[in-house]
Amino acid sequence: MRIDRWRGCAVAVAALLMGGTLPAMAQDAATIAAQGNGKGAAPCQTCHAPDGGGQASGGFPRLAGENAAYLQAQLDAFASGTRDNPVMKLQASALTEAERKALAIYFSKMPAVATPDAGGSTPFADPEHLGETLATRGRWSKQVPACEQCHGPGGVGVGADFPPLAGQSANYLAAQLKAFGSGSRHNDPMGLMRHIAQSLGDRDIDAVAHWFAAQPFPPKESRP
Asked: Residue 212 sits in a domain of what CATH number?
């Protein structure tokens, strides 16, 4: 299922880049998110859902409620290649800098919604509480700080450099840790995430990804 959805997004982007039939449209963020920009960028909602909540089972992240500066930085990184993703590179490269900024602001202002299936349909067995330990205490024997030290209590996010991890897709979180570890993603501040990811094993990565996926986002106290 994850592969099929990924291919669907790739096909949508490729079709537009090869001269799709999108009509001329106003270049505003809401239109681009829903319909694309008519110049090669596919609708964001194809992969990230109309409410910006993402598609957990496919590993497509939530964008709604994220920090605007962080979102713009990621779009810029896709366009420049410091984040290696063939679909998003095509998408970001087809957007102007102004469009990337407008989309970042647009999604940041969308209300964040809880993603009930972020952890996947099959419960992750972690009897030793490995994920919670890494998230809240780290592993100092390998110079790995607690994730919460940068990403905030429960992974709610801190500023433009440390995005929310709470309620994000476990598939997505694990994929990003592996990308940092392999070096295919290298837009982390001071190489911090590359060091951390390279110090974790596959079991560590799966455990901490599922722990954060199970945390509430937005935090209960910020919900209406």
From this structure: 1.10.760.10
